[in-house]
Amino acid sequence: MATKVSRRTVDLSQYPNLVVIYLGMRVNRLTGLKTLAGFGPKIAKSVEAQPDGLLLHENFVFSVFPMHAGMRQYWRDMVSLLKWTRSEPHCLWWQNFLRDSGGTGFWHETYMRQGDMEAIYDDVAEPIGFMRFAPLEPARGPMFSAAHRAAKQEVGEPVVSEDELYGA
User: Which structural domain range is residue 62 located in?
Assistant: First the structure.
């Protein structure tokens, strides 16, 4: 069989610790449109700053109604990703979101070349991704931070501690 399809692949051998993270924000209430629209320029600015370890950032739309926007990022390794999440501006965005989700739901799913995966779903109204087939657990104790969920060592302190978030 002679194909007319141009088939190509990639050599990822230079990226042994590659991390791919999908992130999404879904509008749950009308006020969420303002919240979602406000994040676009902030995220664009943070990507333009070229954080150490960020290899690629891509935006896309999951659905128009309800509005559900997303992005996919490729990171050199989990350490780079975790360092960035614990620095400004990300840590401030995360602290503010956890105070008030602004009519949205936020989630991320992280996939590591070494085989680990982890996810979080905050105020997500409808099951998506892993939520659709895996048992849901409260994000408490060992399931609280992305590093622990991915069986990785913490890089600094979480943006918000479990005691701060839930009250000691």
Answer: 19-138+151-160
